[in-house]
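Researcher: Please translate sequence to structure tokens.
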Amino acid sequence: FQHALRDALGIDVSESAIFDQETDLKRDIDRLRDAPGIPGSLTVSALLYDVGTGRVREICAPRKLGELRGT
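Model: Translation complete:
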């Protein structure tokens, strides 16, 4: 799919590719935590759904961004 986007539209999405879902979900939570414009009252969490088994695994339990920021 990456190659099709690059060939057809000239868009390179390789830097946005997800290779390790768990790590990327944790990184997303960190980005939200570090974004000063997002209020600390916002609750964030991360779940990983396995298409093959239908199981859901909690990666990050629900927490307010303020807690993650230590405020």
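Researcher: Any highlights?
Model: Helices lie at 2-9, 21-34, 65-69.
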